[in-house]
Amino acid sequence: xxxxxxxxxxxxxxxxxxxxxxxxxxxxxxxxxxxxxxxxxxxxxxxxxxxxxxxxxxxxxxxxxxxxxxxxxxxxxxxxxxxxxxxxxxxxxxxxxxxxxxxxxxxxxxxxxxxxxxxxxxxxxxxxxxxxxxxxxxxxxxxxxxxxxxxxxxxxxxxxxxxxxxxxxxxxxxxxxxxxxxxxxxxxxxxxxxxxxxxxxxxxxxxxxxxxxxxxxxxxxxxxxxxxxxxxxxxxxxxxxxxxxxxxxxxxxxxxxxxxxxxxxxxxxxxxxxxxxxxxxxxxxxxxxxxxxxxxxxxxxxxxxxxxxxxxxxxxxxxxxxxxxxxxxxxxxxxxxxxxxxxxxxxxxxxxxxxxxxxxxxxxxxxxxxxx
Length: 372
Hints:
It is a single chain. The protein is α/β, with parallel strands linked by helices. It starts with a helix and ends in a 20-residue tail after the last strand. It has a domain at about 1-55 and about 255-295. The protein has a five-stranded mixed beta sheet with strand order 3-2-1-4-5. The protein is elongated. The protein contains 14 helices and nine strands.
């Protein structure tokens, strides 16, 4: 049963090929549609874990969100994903309308990282817009319109600002005490773009975006551990996008929900560097069990102040953490495993960048464009 679900969901192999492989390799003849029954059983088994992952994500100080389309047999809809630094949660909605987010994220006091979709603008929480999205868009527009002088000038200013910020992130990590020094330059850039008079339609488009979401583009400068991109959610949504290639249009709401529950569990295992098949064979069905298998201590409810002034200064042998207002050094007695694209946390508490996304995109025009 675990092997069937692993190959179908985690590896993206369709059920007919899974059944054929079982017969040819192991000599096990799985009755037709029996694989789907096994998936349904696993979905029921992991329902509690599915709910626990959502509650844990909603309690995290940083929340990533993204969505993508899906076609069912009789309708279309959207698969949404919520991620924290070490968990992922998938769910289905029949439309892209974001009104449900008001209820889902009511009372959330962390930082929400998203793209520029307007449904997020009405949410009552701190927000960080994904700068990788706007970098891609400017890159594409510059490639298509290389003679647009006004767009090129705007890209030069934005690129110069981002290069300095990313250099600081590479050297110091996502620490607000180092990133705040760029806040004045960021606000100066936004004021400059807002006051400019452009005749170029493309430059006008980015001017309006800066006027509408400008401050939300630089929220990460004021908070510790807040990325400037939405790569966590985008990485998670790719798991579904790959699976969708073979089954888009064949889903029913029930079979889609079965997949999303299992994908939530499997991707959370991946985020914690835990072997998915090993976890399934262990018969663990709780979040505490999953984190324990990943070498993590059970989660504890301790205060987190996102401005970075209240940080853990010492940890006792039982895992509790004491706090001081301005500790000279932050040390953790437990190991925190994070996805490799988010960096790692050293025993001294300093964030070390170990990922390409904390550096400039390799082929970005905007980050390599030269000033005239």
